[in-house]
Amino acid sequence: MKNKYIPRLAPVAVLLAALLAPAAPAAADQSFILPAGLGCEFNLGFDSKGGNLQTKQFTDKNGDVVRVLSAGKGVLLTYTNYGEDPANPVAGKSITIRTDGSVTSTRVNPDGTQTVTATGHNGLILFPTDVPAGPTTIHYIGKLVYNVDPSTGVFTFVSSTGQQRDICKELSS
Hints:
173 residues, 2 helices
């Protein structure tokens, strides 16, 4: 269950962290390997380096965070197929994407869920517990909207426009 909270969208991970911290420049560097069956049918490596992300949170009159905005450019994303053996991940084929920028707006809804609208370059990893059920990893260039329930960790895909790259399919061929 602990793995369901692994960041699935680099800028969103920064935004969620910003809910607990004051607004400041945010580092985009992240690196992790998801076990087979979570992001793809194989162990999926994700590495995010560089970039110049700025994050700002907005509060209501009671001081509660109601929106978080993150914008930046220059993040280098690398997805890697680490094979199917979770006990012995071995790096195989990789895809590296130089992003030309993204803006992510996260609105905190009255029920505590979050609605995320991301534009530009964004990768979204859906787990089997998400809606629709993964494992899927798609890199979007355009607009992406999804909801997050922080109490369960479930992401619910709402819509997208623009280009899509099926990272799992590209890494498995």
